[in-house]
Design goal:
Blueprint: H1 3-31, E1 34-36, E2 45-49, H2 51-64, E3 66-70, E4 75-78, E5 81-82, E6 87-91, E7 96-99, E8 112-117, E9 123-126, E10 129-131, E11 138-142, E12 147-150, E13 156-161, E14 164-169, E15 172-174, E16 181-184, E17 187-192, E18 195-197, E19 208-211, E20 214-219, E21 222-225, E22 230-234, E23 244-250, E24 253-256, E25 259-267, E26 271-283, E27 286-292, E28 298-310, E29 322-328, E30 340-352, E31 354-359, E32 366-378, E33 388-390, E34 400-402, E35 408-419, E36 422-425, E37 437-448, E38 463-465
Parallel strand pairs: 1-3, 2-4, 3-6, 4-7, 5-8, 6-9, 7-10, 8-13, 9-14, 10-15, 13-16, 14-17, 15-18, 16-19, 17-20, 18-21, 19-22, 20-23, 21-24, 22-25, 23-26, 24-26, 25-27, 26-28, 27-29, 28-30, 29-31, 30-32, 31-35, 32-35, 32-36, 35-37, 37-38
Antiparallel strand pairs: 11-12, 33-34
């Protein structure tokens, strides 16, 4: 057989395989039953409460498997919907779910708009939007704090608990009054091409929160939200959902007034094997964050190929423009706090108003951290007051700690490596900008090919180890 013939045969084989796959997909779609919510009484006029009608369509689809269809060109007013396994809940075209703002429309224990409990094979798809109507759950606006105050009730957009083989794809949600996509104890999860457009001045409107979850991939998401964009947690629950492990976040874009990529603060169980890759944080109050405050351990974490901008915000918002913030601090004086170990930050470039922090405590030293090819520029361009390190949440020590601003600040840590790292100072260098590297109570500090000087070299040394 000639090489030309071989290539032709391979192309033919690929074409045949592609055609077979397409045929199988089309046959599957043809076989899938469609349960149109309008056939079950949904009006889609944005005024009539459609919860009961859509729930009937969900229940019917769950009995045999199929797609629950909410057609485009309509707005469906809903309260809590209970999704089931083996269905595709599909918001077609420009269909929109509108959150009811009437507390009486929700069950007494409701905390979410779209909910599911211990189901398998749930898919949530489509190009439609879920509108949480955040401002209508708020009471008034704090002008000085640049933040809304919330009322006594505000639902999350999603509360998906104990689900397996979960897929959330292509949809968008906006104006969340509380957390957005909250997944608790879920396994084998794909979140793909989700667009989030929450308000930047609404508190607690997180983007995506995997909580006690395992085997999770979050990719290609575009997130705008006031609170943390993507945050991995292990919250205290009545049910033991176990550790959170094997989570990969990649190719996402984020704008937030809180952390861009984060672990914590709730860390009551171990969190491990997490990869944040190829992401852009366009605005934040902390770019790369691990906040350990509870008894769980955080280990084997990697941030790689990330660009960021981070800055000070108004006083109610957590974070003070820290470029990197790895902190292990007890939540209270009585808290038994775990440890952060095995963190690698590589190929990261950013502009920040505050330090890259590796900050353990006397109760919990951070160990085995490598910063590899981190290129950091420190500047000040906002008028919010500084210099401050934000240690919240804690009552075991100062929550907001006055602290001058080095480029890299390392405290209560062991075996920290700075490799091929750079530090530059921007045009605005206030007097409290200090050393390129400041280390205190640190053992095993290794620096190779570090580039950077003090902000004010006539006054301060570039590297200070105490």
């Amino acid at each position: 057989m000639t090489m030309s013939t071989l290539h032709t045969t391979r192309r033919q084989a690929l074409k045949l395989a592609g055609a077979a796959a397409l045929g199988a997909t089309l046959r599957l779609r043809a076989q899938q039953r469609v349960f149109d919510a309008r056939d079950y009484g949904a009006k889609g006029d944005g005024v009539t409460l459609d919860t009961a009608a859509i729930q009937k369509a969900i229940d019917a689809a769950a009995a045999s498997g199929g797609q629950v269809l909410l057609r485009g060109g309509r707005k469906y007013l809903v309260s809590t919907l209970v999704l089931k396994g083996a269905i595709d809940f599909h918001l077609a075209d420009d269909a929109e779910l509108l959150a009811s703002t009437n507390r009486a429309d929700y069950p007494g224990d409701a905390d979410g708009l779209l909910t599911a409990h211990e189901v398998t094979g749930l898919k949530i798809s489509g190009t439609g939007n879920i509108n949480g109507r955040a401002k209508e759950f708020m009471t008034d606006y704090n002008q000085a704090g640049e933040i809304w105050r919330f009322g006594p009730f505000r639902p999350k957009i999603f509360v998906l608990t104990g689900c397996k083989d979960l897929e959330v794809r292509d949809i968008s949600f906006s104006d969340a009054p509380f957390w957005g996509l909250h997944m608790i104890g879920c396994e084998r999860v794909l979140v793909d091409h989700v667009k989030i457009r929450n308000l930047l001045d609404v508190p607690n409107c997180d983007g995506i929160d995997p909580d006690h979850c395992r085997d999770v991939e979050i990719r290609n998401c575009d997130i705008v939200c006031g609170d943390d964009a993507i945050v991995i947690k292990s919250t205290r629950q009545a049910v033991d959902y176990g550790a959170c492990t094997n989570v990969r976040v990649h190719d996402c874009v984020m704008t937030t007034k809180d952390s861009g990529l984060k672990i914590g603060t709730e860390t009551v169980e171990d969190i491990s094997n997490v990869r944040f890759e190829r992401c852009e944080i366009r605005s934040s109050c902390r770019a790369l964050t691990i906040q350990l405050r509870d008894e769980g351990n955080v280990r084997d974490i990697q941030f790689s190929d990330i660009r960021f901008v981070t800055q000070y915000q108004a006083a109610p918002w957590w974070g003070r423009g820290e470029a990197i913030s790895l902190t292990a601090i007890p939540r209270t004086k009585e808290t038994k706090v775990g440890r952060i170990t095995g963190v690698r930050v590589r190929n990261v470039t950013g502009r920040a108003e505050n330090s890259a922090r590796i900050n353990g405590s006397a109760e919990s030293r951070i160990a085995d951290v490598t910063l590899d090819n981190v290129d950091l520029t420190l500047d000040r361009w906002t008028a919010y007051p500084g210099p401050i390190f934000d240690n919240r949440p804690t009552t075991a020590g100062p929550d907001l700690e006055p602290h001058r601003t080095p480029g890299y600040s390392i405290r209560y840590a062991d075996n920290v490596t700075l490799k091929n790292c750079k530090l530059a100072w921007g045009r605005n260098k206030p007097e409290y900008f200090t050393h390129a590297v400041e280390a205190e109570n640190v053992s095993g500090l290794a620096m190779t090919h570090f580039t950077g000087e003090a902000a004010h070299p006539e006054r301060d040394e570039a590297i200070v180890v105490r």
